[in-house]
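INPUT
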Amino acid sequence: MKRHQITRACLFIGALFGATPGWSADAGELAGSICMACHGEGGNSVVPNFPKLSGQHATYLEKQLNEFLSGKRRNDVMAPILDSFSKQDVPALAAWYAAQKPTPGTVGDPGLLAAGKAIYEDGNVETGVPGCMGCHQPRAQGNARYPRLAGQHQAYTLQQMNDFKSGVRDNDKGKVMRAVAERMTEQEMQAVAEYMASLQ
Ligand code: HEC
Ligand code: HEC
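OUTPUT
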């Protein structure tokens, strides 16, 4: 039996005897025992390649977790931990991370911020890159339909942009992000990643 399964069994027994455990406590325990190793305390990862999950919208987190489980989104680092949670855990895990307070990002190269802001807001008319703002919202805060990108690690953002561009990541419905990324240069991706990291 895995540690969180034992906890769940205890919670279940507790519930039978009138205690008031909740799925939220269970999700916090699962996050703390398994996910924290990479995604950090409260989802505030400190490793540039591991995404921050704190304050991300629950709808987006649910979609990603279900798609990792179904194999629609694939990643070698996430793969070995996919047997530590199931579809039943997904809504509570998503709600738990959505409720955590995100820490601000760190700007690496302030010289890229102006170019990044221009792409974020207006895109590149010549090459047909749309502005990101129309979907991801003016300060990259996202909403129930589009993920939050503010304060995210540049390295993770850049990896996702390149994965959309090459098609390694293809779980974006209607190819929305692949169509954006395939028109972008590496320099544009770097600049916009830097700008989004600077937003809160
Ligand atoms: C061994 C390290 C590791 C562990 C442990 C881990 N993850 Fe991840 N996780 C990653 C990496 C790396 C990615 C980025 C995958 C990619 O590039 O597609 C990721 C991506 C994600 C994403 C997608 C984020 C986004 O912005 O699209 C979610 C959601 C997620 N993990 C949730 C979890 C949960 C919940 C747990 C615990 C049950 C967990 N992870 C455990 C490494 C880990
Ligand atoms: C037409 C709407 C739309 C536009 C315009 C758009 N995006 Fe997205 N973006 C999405 C959607 C939808 C997703 C979620 C895909 C999924 O469900 O996996 C997404 C996901 C992403 C992700 C992955 C987030 C994560 O946590 O893994 C990044 C990074 C991103 N977008 C960056 C950008 C950038 C940079 C721009 C502007 C150059 C942009 N997007 C423009 C709709 C859009």
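end of record. The two ends are 40 Å apart (CA to CA).
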